[in-house]
Structure formats: structure tokens, C-alpha cells
Specification:
Elements lengths: L7 E4 L9 E7 L4 E8 L1 E12 L5 E10 L5 E10 L1 E7 L5 E7 L9 E6 L6 H11 L1
Antiparallel strand pairs: 1-2, 1-9, 2-3, 3-4, 4-5, 5-6, 7-8, 8-9
Length: 135
């Protein structure tokens, strides 16, 4: 089976000049994923399951929110029937980049993300989560 083109690490800030805040989405091949909210440092992680319907629409079911020094909170939010477009584009600094665009809704607060990597280490989530717990 061919790997879905959405699999990888996508950053809202990658399309612009580097700044203090970012939203980074991680789509794993397994259908798991998470989004990191950063503002100078890692502030929170929201986990989700994702899948494609037969018509190619992307669906994301959020399930947990982890915040710094706090317990996790269950959440139940569905982002359904997302029209996703992935194409080549340019950053604000005229560098080529692969861009994921949500055409019919915002995706975690943004409508466009730049691809940082098409691979994610299998233990990367636990490493990132430990940053919230160890601060």
C-alpha cells in the first residue's frame, strides 16, 4: 500500500520567517498523530487519530490534550471532510517547500503548513511528551 502523502511533520511557521510560535502537526502512517503548540517553548500537545474516507477527504478525531505540568484532559473534537491539497510552493524567503493546505476549514488554527520531514521516529512522541512533564 502506498504511503499517504499527508504522513510527515508539517509546520505553520515553516512558510514564514522563523518566529517564537508555531503549530507543528505530526501525521504517522499508523493513523495516529499529534499537534504541538509552541510559544517560545513547547506549551501543549493534542493527540488525534486520522483517516481518509473513500472520497479522499481527511478526518481527524482529537482525543487528548497534554499541557505543561498538568494532567492530561480528554477531548472529543472531530474535524471531518477536510479537503486537503498538497503541492509545491515557496516560503516567504523564496525557498521551495511542499505545502499542505486545508481548502475548506482551518486545521488546528491555520490553513497552510510546510513539510519539515516525511519521516517521524517511532519514539518521537514520547520524547516530546517528556518535555512537557520535565520542565
Amino acid at each position: 500500500m502506498k504511503k499517504d502523502e499527508v504522513v510527515g511533520v508539517w509546520s505553520a511557521d515553516a512558510l514564514y520567517m522563523p518566529g517564537p510560535s508555531d503549530e507543528i502537526i505530526y501525521f504517522m502512517e499508523s493513523g495516529d498523530g499529534w499537534v504541538e503548540y509552541l510559544n517560545w517553548s513547547l506549551c501543549s500537545i493534542e493527540t488525534f487519530k486520522w483517516w481518509r474516507s473513500a472520497d479522499g477527504k481527511l478526518h481527524i478525531q482529537s482525543n487528548m490534550l497534554f499541557e505543561d505540568h498538568k494532567t492530561s484532559t480528554e477531548i472529543d473534537e472531530l474535524h471531518a471532510n477536510l479537503d486537503i491539497c498538497i503541492q509545491q510552493g515557496m516560503t516567504k524567503t523564496n525557498q521551495p517547500i511542499t505545502i499542505l493546505s486545508a481548502l475548506n476549514a482551518d486545521l488546528f488554527g491555520n490553513d497552510k503548513y510546510g513539510l519539515l520531514s516525511s519521516t517521524i521516529e517511532s519514539d518521537y512522541f514520547s520524547k516530546r511528551l517528556s518535555l512537557l512533564r520535565d520542565e
